[in-house]
């Protein structure tokens, strides 16, 4: 089991800080990790990103294109390729691609990741010059804490989530808020949020890895966060300062907010290479958008994991059609649908030709959101998507499916006031479902219209979203908090020459 690493950019010469990022290879974790590595490189640090062979190809392409923007003096970003021992944990070799992990074998995948600790440590001891100065481990990979301890370097936790979400989750856990609450659907008030009154149910915020049989893993995750030397988050303080401060105080550790990391990419070529190869040609997509009025197009996507239920596809499609607004709808794994749904989509496409664009597969999301024609985002509230909407100054229709997405929805609707909810109040995937939930076409139409048809509330939401976008841009410029945090992070973990 050998690791290999290639270096891109001007070379590590002179770098005083070397951050080794160990991401979870789910797109919602990997994409912001790579962006964060690029951000640190742009500010003078060397960053390495450790990935398995399947993902190394993708990450290399993104990094190669994105690094053309780095100055000649930048130490650059290294891609460290580390094989995944699938066979050793009873997984087929193809499970290196997370979409191909057989159902019920998720735990084996996490075990295979943990087995990377020793080969990675050997590689970093022998091959990494300069020696790492900080391990940036995804919060889902508790073994990165032991890796750092063994190497004798600090470890910070990487959260591709917002401070509001992790603070709410931490508070309901440390204050035992669900104790004595028999039903998962009964709301409790999140404790210790200062003036803010936020209610959440156990179904919406059960805790990370709160699946039967994962108790030990969940405990290890919690322990490894508690023992870390700090936290790095893809968010920005100007948007949620009290929650950043609250989480830092509750954990007793420093929190570096360095987002929105997607702002590293400002050009079509690197935006198109972000994540994976797109199912639609970027120029074709831009030409389609160029034809539309400013703020007129509704972008609809549920991220990289959700595969929408067939009944829901039909209702969503009909709702978008009857809203009357132009839309781009991203449909993941279209090939898995039966003939009836595929036929429905073909007919819908014909009826809305010129007004509705269906992308079957991966879309250049940030490229679309940042086009002037984009007017709203119907989102599953994955944190990256939410932050990308904020960065683009777009109001959102919120449609959470699982994990932190319910808290992110509360952030958008109740706190930032840029969102309208479709009203889903319990998980649609991963957790045990009590009932089949299908959001009807009329609800979809109403939510889209309430964002797009104008009126005072809609105007307020749009204004708020634009103001947040200005703050998101400013935070990464000199004087902004994310800009200062990037420099402070590098200063905090550079080699001390005595
Ligand atoms: N994404 C994309 N094109 C797609 C689907 C997703 O570029 O067709 C990107 C999106 O911009 C975001 C990430 O994938 O950066 C998805 O992360 P998020 O946290 O929103 O949701 P998840 O996929 O983790 O559910």
UniProtKB/TrEMBL annotation:
Its EC number is 2.4.1.-. Keywords: Glycosyltransferase, Transferase. GO terms for molecular function: UDP-glucosyltransferase activity. The keyword Cell cycle does not apply. It comes from the Eukaryota. The keyword Cell membrane does not apply. This is Glycosyltransferase. It comes from Zizania palustris.
């Amino acid at each position: 089991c050998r690791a290999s690493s290639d270096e891109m950019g001007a070379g590590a010469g002179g770098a005083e800080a070397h951050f080794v990022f160990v991401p979870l290879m789910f797109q919602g974790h990997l994409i912001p990790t790579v962006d964060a590595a690029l951000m640190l490189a742009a500010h003078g640090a060397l960053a390495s990103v450790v990935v398995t062979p399947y993902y190394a190809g993708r990450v290399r392409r993104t990094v190669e294109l994105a690094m053309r923007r780095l100055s000649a003096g930048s130490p650059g970003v290294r891609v460290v390729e580390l094989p995944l021992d699938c066979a050793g944990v009873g997984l087929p070799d193809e499970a290196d691609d997370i979409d191909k992990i057989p159902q019920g074998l998720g735990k084996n995948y996490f075990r295979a990741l943990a087995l990377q600790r020793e080969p990675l440590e050997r590689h970093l001891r022998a091959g990494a010059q300069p020696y790492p100065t900080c391990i940036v481990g995804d919060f889902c990979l508790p073994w990165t804490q032991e890796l750092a301890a063994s190497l004798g370097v600090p470890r910070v936790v990487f959260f591709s989530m917002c401070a509001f979400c992790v603070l709410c989750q931490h508070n309901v856990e440390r204050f035992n808020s669900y104790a004595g609450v028999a039903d998962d659907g009964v709301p409790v008030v999140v404790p210790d949020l200062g003036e803010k009154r936020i209610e959440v149910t156990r179904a919406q915020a059960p805790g990370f890895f709160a699946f039967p049989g994962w108790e030990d893993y969940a405990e290890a995750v919690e322990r490894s966060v508690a023992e870390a030397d700090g936290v790095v988050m893809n968010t920005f303080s100007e948007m949620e300062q009290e929650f950043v401060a609250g989480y830092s105080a509750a954990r007793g550790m420093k929190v570096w907010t360095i987002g929105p990391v997607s702002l590293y990419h400002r050009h079509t070529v690197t935006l198109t290479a972000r994540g994976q190869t797109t199912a639609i040609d970027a120029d074709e997509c831009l030409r389609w958008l160029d034809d539309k009025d400013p703020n007129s197009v509704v972008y609809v996507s549920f991220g990289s994991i959700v595969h929408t239920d067939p009944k829901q596809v039909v209702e969503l499609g009909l709702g978008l059609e009857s809203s009357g607004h132009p839309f781009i709808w991203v449909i993941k794994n279209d090939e898995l649908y039966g003939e009836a749904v595929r036929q429905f989509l073909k007919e819908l496409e014909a009826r809305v030709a010129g007004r509705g664009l269906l992308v079957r597969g991966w879309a250049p999301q940030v490229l679309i959101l940042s086009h002037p024609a984009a007017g709203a985002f119907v989102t599953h509230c994955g944190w990256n998507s939410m932050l990308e909407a904020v960065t683009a100054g777009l109001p959102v229709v919120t449609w959470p499916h699982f994990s932190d997405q319910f808290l992110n929805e509360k952030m958008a609707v109740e706190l930032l006031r840029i969102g309208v909810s479709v009203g889903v109040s319990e998980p649609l995937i991963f957790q045990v479902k009590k009932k089949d939930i299908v959001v009807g076409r009329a609800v979809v139409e109403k939510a889209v219209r309430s964002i797009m048809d104008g009126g005072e509330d809609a105007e307020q939401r749009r204004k708020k979203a634009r103001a947040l976008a200005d703050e998101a841009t400013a935070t990464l410029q000199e004087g902004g908090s994310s800009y200062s945090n990037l420099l402070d992070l590098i200063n905090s973990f550079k080699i001390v020459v005595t």
